[in-house]
Specification:
Blueprint: E1 7-9, E2 15-17, E3 20-21, H1 22-29, E4 33-37, H2 38-55, E5 60-65, H3 72-80, E6 84-87, H4 90-98, E7 106-108, H5 115-124, E8 128-131, H6 134-147, E9 151-158, E10 161-163, E11 168-170, E12 180-181, H7 186-196, E13 200-206, H8 216-237, E14 243-245, H9 263-284, E15 290-293, H10 297-300, E16 304-316, E17 320-325, H11 334-338, E18 344-346, E19 356-361, E20 370-377, E21 385-389, E22 409-414, E23 417-422, H12 427-431
Parallel strand pairs: 4-22, 5-6, 5-15, 6-7, 7-8, 8-9, 9-12, 9-13, 13-14, 14-15, 17-19
Antiparallel strand pairs: 1-2, 2-3, 4-16, 10-11, 16-17, 16-21, 18-21, 19-20, 22-23
Helix pairs in contact: 2-9, 5-6, 8-9
The structure holds pyridoxal-5'-phosphate (PLP).
């Protein structure tokens, strides 16, 4: 485990996060437990904001990609750091509003937004809607007309850069459910269409090339391609995009296969992107666009850990040792979905040497319900506290009530204080929306 300011081994040999002993947290709040380190979240939000302030004259806005972790408290934190957010559903929008988030700093995404969601977006005055289809553009135009407003929009385009964790390839790939491809002309065509819609105000373009990306050149290449496209559109249509949204995707450390990045590294990623945009603006004689970026994982991912209690242990000699925990795919489906890798530590004895490889299994009725496969761990027994690291992004967001398990509690830790930000569900919550038709008696 790489230690850092707020995640370390304390004098008792226990894992500590945000000044709180994880064994004490497990005792106080029970397990499984999502734990979020407030300082880390704020540090990352500030890093991106300050980079735009310093290197781009403040001509932009960081939008926290709230799909990574959405709850009222996170919107409060984002707002207090002076950043905006993006949302991809009426539910995320509602949550942001419940936290008092300013509408103007919210951008609405999604490849198939419902009429209700679009209506809510226009009605509430969100800063922008990222248009992803002709259908949506036309519906939105009608809603804006009925409300007597001109809705700000961006168009989601595909620059043809496919990014992978440690590499990128350029493709002319049009096979994506998102956006309009530059290479096949559809991005240009939708631009001409939207410019004819009187109730939409086209601000510019958005692209997002993927997630968990470490290859700096992928971001630069995407920015270059979108800037070339902006120049092309200006030359042909006499329309110059005022805004460029370059999406999210910066990678984080899950295991020792991933680099450890500091805030300086993230600032460097963004600065490279900014430099590329400036160079292209110079080359094409374009004004510098208002810059939006949408980091999610890199703001909350490493800020989060999940604590578990070990239950049953099944050793199949010569095959595998399963260590079962009180969580599983209902609170972290990422291994089941795409074999994500995690670092697992024994939180109640961090100095113990790793002597074995084990598979961390969940409690769901599903063989694929695993959290981590063949990970190094010290000897463990029932009752030990395990921590899975870097679970802040896309864990709670993707949680479900599979097998009618509770979605766990989430707490925020800071300077030795721990506060609940999402309550643990109750049995009553699980049946709240169930209805028994009268005829069933
Ligand atoms: C449009 C868009 N923006 C931003 C993000 C956030 O990406 P990340 O969490 O990797 O920073 C995503 C994630 O899938 C996305 O689809």
């Amino acid at each position: 485990m790489h230690q850092r300011e707020t995640l370390k081994i304390n004098g008792k040999g226990h894992l500590e996060i945000g000044g709180c002993d994880c064994v004490d947290l497990a005792k106080q709040f029970g397990t499984p437990l999502y734990v979020f380190d407030e300082k880390y979240i704020r540090k990352m939000a500030r890093t991106y904001k300050q980079t735009i302030d310093l290197n781009y004259g403040g001509n932009g806005l960081v939008l926290y990609a709230s799909k990574a972790f959405s709850c009222k408290a996170i919107y409060k934190i984002a707002d207090s750091e002076g950043i905006g957010c993006d949302v991809v559903s009426g539910g995320e929008l509602y949550t942001a509003f419940q936290a008092g988030f300013p509408a103007k700093k919210i951008y609405f995404h999604g490849n198939n937004k419902t009429v209700e969601e679009l209506t809510e977006a226009v009605k509430s005055g969100v800063g922008g809607v990222i248009v992803d289809s002709y259908r949506e553009a036309d519906i939105l135009d009608g809603i804006a007309k009925a409300k007597g407003v001109r809705q700000n929009v961006l168009i989601r385009i595909n620059p043809g850069v496919e990014a992978h964790t440690h590499a990128y390839i350029q493709t002319a790939r049009t096979d994506s459910k998102f956006g309009f491809s530059i290479s096949d002309g559809t991005a240009y065509n939708i631009t001409t269409h939207i410019l004819t819609l009187k109730n939409l105000n086209l601000q510019g373009f958005h692209c997002h090339i993927g997630s968990q990306i470490f290859e700096k050149q992928s971001f630069v290449l995407a920015a270059n391609k979108v800037m070339d496209f902006i120049a092309d559109v200006k030359a042909k249509l006499n329309f110059e995009a005022a805004t460029l949204n370059i999406g999210g995707g910066f990678g984080i450390h899950y295991t020792d296969d991933d680099p450890v990045l500091t805030e300086k590294d993230y600032a460097e990623y963004l600065t490279m992107l900014i430099d590329a945009i400036k160079a292209k603006a110079g080359e094409h004689k374009l004004s510098l666009p208002y810059l939006l970026i949408e980091p999610g994982r890199s703001i909350v991912g490493e800020a989060g850990i999940t604590l578990y209690t070990v239950g049953a242990i099944k050793d199949i000699p010569g095959i595998k040792k399963y260590v079962a925990i009180d969580g599983g795919m209902f609170e972290n489906p990422r291994y089941a979905l795409y074999q994500s890798k995690y670092t697992v530590v024994k939180a109640n004895d961090m100095n113990a040497e790793c002597t074995q490889k084990v598979t961390i299994a969940g409690k769901c009725c599903e063989s694929g319900d695993l959290i981590a496969v063949d990970v190094p761990l010290p000897e463990v027994e029932s009752g030990d506290i395990l921590a899975v690291l870097s679970t802040g992004a896309y864990n709670y967001s993707m949680a479900s009530n599979y097998n009618r398990n509770f979605i766990p509690q989430a707490i925020l830790v800071n300077d030795g204080k721990a506060e609940t930000i999402i309550k643990k569900q109750t049995y009553e919550d699980l049946v709240r929306n169930d209805v028994i038709p009268e005829r069933l008696g």
